């Protein structure tokens, strides 16, 4: 969601939007940190905020029907399984434009900006386990 004038910072915005959009109250002390900003197709800046919410039953949430179509949870272990990871290649006018990650779970497909943020999160939470296929190799220094 977007920042309101009354929001103190991006963390406050994220916690307020989480409460408004899915009915989940996350205490500020449960925030782990802020990921690097990403930009959507309209060049708007999105600042992901990571927080621990503990065991979560999606049925206990109250999604705002004007903003949320469906809520589901994915265990970290599921996201880390290679068969649930992939990439989508986007073309425009018959020409390749860009590639983004995609994560699969039954009928659900996590893609777009949400998948990019999910990939950043997996790199942070499971650095030795999650290895993006399209990660560019580090160039030698010297």
UniProtKB/TrEMBL annotation:
<protein>
    <recommendedName>
        <fullName>Nudix hydrolase domain-containing protein</fullName>
    </recommendedName>
</protein>
<dbReference type="InterPro" id="IPR015797">
    <property type="entry name" value="NUDIX_hydrolase-like_dom_sf"/>
</dbReference>
<dbReference type="InterPro" id="IPR045121">
    <property type="entry name" value="CoAse"/>
</dbReference>
<keyword id="KW-0460">Magnesium</keyword>
<dbReference type="Pfam" id="PF00293">
    <property type="entry name" value="NUDIX"/>
</dbReference>
<keyword id="KW-0378">Hydrolase</keyword>
<dbReference type="GO" id="GO:0046872">
    <property type="term" value="F:metal ion binding"/>
</dbReference>
<keyword id="KW-0464">Manganese</keyword>
<keyword id="KW-0479">Metal-binding</keyword>
<feature type="domain" description="Nudix hydrolase">
    <location>
        <begin position="1"/>
        <end position="104"/>
    </location>
</feature>
<dbReference type="InterPro" id="IPR000086">
    <property type="entry name" value="NUDIX_hydrolase_dom"/>
</dbReference>
<dbReference type="GO" id="GO:0010945">
    <property type="term" value="F:coenzyme A diphosphatase activity"/>
</dbReference>
